[in-house]
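Write out this protein's structure.
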Amino acid sequence: MTRYTDHDQIAIAALDIAEQVRERGPLELYRSLTAQCARDPERMAQIIMCLAVWLDPATSTLQLGRRAEAATASRVKRVGAAS
């Protein structure tokens, strides 16, 4: 495998995943990401590293949990309303 050197493309892919977390169902996104990891693990490792450097390590896990809940709240409401 070759290393991806276009950091703009890696960042775009990372942002796309961040959007998908807010828009797609968790199982659907999980399956898509695991397939991408199997197909191209080096690219996915770079995307994960990109997401990690955007995260402030000083942020508490409680704050991160609240942020995750807020990011997915609208999707969870849509799924709950459909039940």
